[in-house]
């Protein structure tokens, strides 16, 4: 059987997508239940189209970058809408995420500095004993 690059396929089974992206079929069904994916059905079988695959890529990227499912849903709801709105929402959410990560980085650096100071004090006290 000839291998077809996923980029060039039109139809996908749930197992195909799960394997390609290294996630469980349960995760894909969860995204469907949340309204993020809308596969067609033939009987009990889910048929995913290229559009569903593209949406899944965006969902997984959004999750990897730390966006909530709500943020991802808001973005996807604009998928076929005005591109200006989509870009504006994306820019706003990215800026918020960057600000949060920068605050977390600052907190981590402060914590690491404090822990190093505690370690130095402990080492000095142990050396005196």
UniProtKB/TrEMBL annotation:
Transmembrane segments: none annotated. Residues 91-125 form a coiled coil. Keywords: Coiled coil, DNA-binding, Transcription, Transcription regulation. Residues 11-78 form the HTH merR-type domain. It comes from the Bacteria. GO terms for molecular function: DNA binding. It holds the Pfam family MerR-DNA-bind. This is MerR family DNA-binding protein. It comes from Devosia rhizoryzae. The lineage of its organism: Bacteria, Pseudomonadati, Pseudomonadota, Alphaproteobacteria, Hyphomicrobiales.
């Amino acid at each position: 059987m000839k291998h077809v690059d996923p980029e060039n396929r039109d139809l996908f089974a749930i197992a195909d997508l799960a394997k390609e992206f290294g996630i469980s079929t349960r995760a894909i069904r969860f995204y469907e239940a949340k309204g993020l994916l809308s596969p067609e059905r033939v009987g009990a079988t889910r048929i995913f189209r290229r559009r569903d695959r593209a949406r899944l890529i965006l969902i997984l990227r959004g999750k990897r970058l730390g966006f909530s499912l709500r943020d991802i849903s808001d973005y996807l709801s604009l998928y076929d809408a005005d591109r200006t709105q989509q870009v504006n929402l994306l820019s706003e959410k990215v800026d918020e995420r960057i600000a949060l990560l920068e605050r977390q980085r600052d907190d981590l650096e402060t914590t690491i500095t404090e822990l190093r100071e505690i370690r130095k004090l402990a080492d000095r006290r142990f050396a005196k004993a």
